[in-house]
Structures are given as C-alpha cells and as structure tokens.
# Entry
Amino acid sequence: MEGVEVVRLSSFPEWAGPASDLNDSVWPEYINSTEAEVKFWGLLYDELMDWQAIALHPDSGLMGCGHSIPVWWDGTFE
# Structure
C-alpha cells in the first residue's frame, strides 16, 4: 500500500498500546494465555521496542506489527 512506512516501535512509542491491542485482537486466546506469553509478551512493548516493527500509514495509522527478539550467538555452528 502506498504511503506505508515500516519503522521501529522505539521510534514511535506512542503506538505501543495500539500495537498491543491489535495483537490481542488477532491472536487466538489459547496463545494469549500461555505462561510464556504472560511472562514475556509485555517486554516487547517495553524493554525490546528496538526489535519490534510497526507499519504506519499517514491516513490510516497502524496497519500491522512484526515482532522479534534479540538472540545472542557466538558465531560458531556447533
């Protein structure tokens, strides 16, 4: 869609609440109530904002979210 920009959530922290609400509305309830989700999901919108992507449209606002987490790797394949 023309005009959509994908940006880091940390650049637009005011969209953290709407992004969380969007995810809550599309994920099945059984995913939203796992022990891991309850314990860690909130970190995506707080401590890990640099690794979350959001798609913003100048007229429509939030169009989507993409989530990731940083993983430490020492560079070896073992």
Summary: The chain is about 25% helix and 20% strand.
